[in-house]
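COMPLEX REQUEST
Ligand: zinc ion
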Amino acid sequence: MLEALRGEVVRCAQEAEAQGLCRWRSGNFSARDKATGLVCMTPSGVNRRLMIAEDIVVMDLDGRVAEAANGRKPSSEALMHLAAYEVRPDICAIAHTHSPFALVFAALERPIPGLVLEAAHLHCEGGSVPVAPFAPQGTQELADSVRAPLRMGDAMLLARHGALAVGTSLDDALLKAAYVEELAEVACRAAAISGGMMPAPLPPEAFVLRYPDKIK
Ligand SMILES: [Zn+2]
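STATUS: Structure written out below.
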């Protein structure tokens, strides 16, 4: 069932690890099939480097498992993914990462300021990546905490935990996860060479993507 999409989830998860966006067994990834509404999600407790399409768990939006080979269980953060799909019916993929610089802001429970133009691609209200209050891993409380931030943009932080990026495809969600990390790294380094002072974020109007009126 949904073999191609399951393969895409594996590719995305392995690419995220190769990019340094998640290490060891942190992070999880999912994609929603437009036709059936079913969600393909990375399993818990499987080494990403060894993961194959058959390891990906298929479930419906209510969390009922439709297919899981070899007794695989969906990620412990499945509830969070399902809440994100519920609040954002326009999205088809989610990348949950524990990338190092984003984790610094998550640890401080501070939004990542939109200092450079990559922030425009995250569509976050005000240009900064918001942070949801802390909730324990795997709980309904954590799942519910993503609802408000995701109504305001395509990326967010989970306090003391990691980052979440959503998109219309797995590549879109992965690109946004990479932008979150880049913004966080730029902000950390900019503050470090400015004596701990964080530069002012770009004003919201700077994030509007424009195209040339005329190309000669
Ligand atoms: Zn996590």
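REMARKS: The longest strand covers residues 162-167. The helical segments are 3-18, 78-87, 100-108, 140-145, 147-151, 170-192.
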